[in-house]
Amino acid sequence: MRSLPDADPGVPDIRSPIRYLWWNARRQAPSLFAGISFATLWWLVQALMPAVLGKGIEAVTAKDTGALVRWAAILFGLGLVQAFTGIMRHRMAVYNWLAAAYRTVQLTTRQAARLGATLPKRLSTGEVVSVGNSDIAHIGSSMDILLRGTGAVVAIVTVTVILISTSLPLGLLVLFGVPLMAVAVGPLLRPLHRRQHHQRQLTGDLSTRAADIVAGLRVLRGIGGEQVFAERYHEESQQARRAGVRVAGVESVLEGAQIVLPGVLIAIVTGVGASFAVAGDIPTGQLVAFYLYAVFLIGPMRTLTEAADKITKGHVAAGRVIRILSIEPEITGGTAGSEGGVLRDSYSGVTLQPGALTALAAASPEDAIAVADRLGRYAPGDVTFGDTELAALPVADVRSRILVADNGARLFTGRLRDELDVRGSASDEQVRQALHAACALDIVEALPDGFDARVAEAGREFSGGQQQRLRLVRALLADPEVLILVEPTSAVDAHTEARIADRLGKARAGKTTLVCTTSPLVLDRADHVIYVEDGRMLAEGTHRQLLDTSPAYAATVTRGED
Question: ABC transporter domain: from which residue to which, for each copy (predicted)?
Fold first, then answer.
């Protein structure tokens, strides 16, 4: 079994869509060349069959048994070659389709991981989803059609040469008739692509709407807006459906034209050939061969039209792909090094002492998220890590040493043990300790397969609180130098929250930890508490000290209760 595609997709040429497609073709040049060779031979064998059949008919007419056996044997041999080349052509076509499509998947996935939070700011969810749903297929098809398209051109040239050498008028008729048929179909391609583009935009917008609805379903139900958005989704889905019907209308006309126009050419060739046969200018066997050639040419002609359609679609799809690949991250790093130490955000005044469990309570949740984003280098800011500006460190270095874990993180499909220990370096004891610290042992014990249980997409088999605890386990097992947790206990009950608060400090002993929360249970167990309002630090101390000295802090963490 061949590995597909290459482990390293390489560096794509994104200067233009055609350059991207050409780069893809060069990356798989050996398989493309092999596929084109098989496809060309496959078409050539079919192109020779009418001539062999004609010779066989002439042998029957002349009652030449030896010639009949010889031509029958040749026809049988051509059939075997056609069967073999057809199988190999199809195998190479599938391989080239998959290689091009999944190389694009690798590139876009790698770019999405590189961009991080930049991607959703620059492109809608629907636009990104559409790349995965349709554009990769079009790029794969643009590579696949090169095989049959090249072979079709060779087959048409071969048939034309045979016809001209046999009968100049019939050969010229085919020579000029085939391009005219292709030109006649051409005007249908532009409206087809225009309608396809419009349908794709509507489908992308619909995907974005669906993602927004799913993400905010609980809120929508809470405010009674579920029906309003359902009606809006229904209206937009009907628009996408009508656009699809319009696309199908043009496609049906195109399919009909691909049958009718070659049929006209067949009728003309057959009629002219029949008149030549009646006049005695050509034998009956050649008339049959001319008819079969005219019928055979329907295949190559349709392939050429298909090639024009798929290559155009591939060009448009490549344009959308390179749009993603050309986006640069908002956050970039330098090449400096740092031994670590105090992590300080100059804008807010928040300072994290090495080895301490610090809690940050903010009057507005947005303020806490902004501080976490700056400290984790997900947003620009004047942050220092020891004696070094955080912006001067390589982004990869920052990501490996500072982990920001919020409730927007997702569980991925796979074995539970692998999803929790993403680095694959934790021992069984370390996993159990992390589960104990996050009060998540009961979750694993309740699963029939324990650690070997398969996690469904986004961990949907777990409740909100269970997902939150499993995300905390994953963050603890990552064991970063600095761990920043954003509301890690917001979805669990008070008893579980108290146990997590008791165990979190022990689990992170000797390492820098920041917990962004307004939960008194967590704040009371922190070594140091910082209160932020309007983006600035207003007070710091222990939880109980701040309750006595900062009315604003007390009002925030007690929700205004006495």
Answer: 322-559
Residues 389 and 383: beta-carbon distance below 8 Å: yes
* Strand partners for 344: 351, 384
Identity of the residue numbered 369: I
**DSSP type of residue 392:** G
Report residue 47 as tokens: 């192109």
**Residue type at 178?**
V
Q: What is the pLDDT of residues 84-122, one digit of tens each?
A: 999 999 999 999 999 998 898 888 888 888 887 777 777
In 326-357, alpha helices (H)? none
Amino acid code (one letter) for 516? C
Query: 17-325: what fold?
Result: ABC transporter transmembrane region fold (1.20.1560)
Return the sign of the alpha-carbon dihedral for residues 121, 127, 132, 135: negative
The CA distance from 256 to 262, in Å, is 10
By C-alpha distance, which of 226, 530, 128, 97 is closest to 348?
530
Please spell the DSSP secondary structure of 35-62, one letter per residue: HHHHHHHHHHHHHHHHHHHHHHHHHHHT
Domains of the chain by residue range: 17-325, 343-557
pLDDT digit string, tens, across residues 270-321:
787 778 777 777 777 777 777 777 778 778 877 887 887 788 888 888 888 9
Q: How far apart are CA 288 and CA 296, in angstroms?
A: 12
| SS3 state at 526 | coil
- Residues with Cβ within 8 Å of 300's Cβ and at least 6 positions away in sequence, in order, are 43, 152, 153, 155, 156
Structure token digits, residue 500: 């997590």
- Measured at the CA of 507, the angle between CA 432 and CA 503, to 5 degrees, comes to 90
> How many residues are listed for the chain in this entry?
562
pLDDT higher than 80, residue 199: no
pLDDT of residue 188 exceeding 90 = no
pLDDT at 219: 45
What are 284's two structure tokens?
């009956």
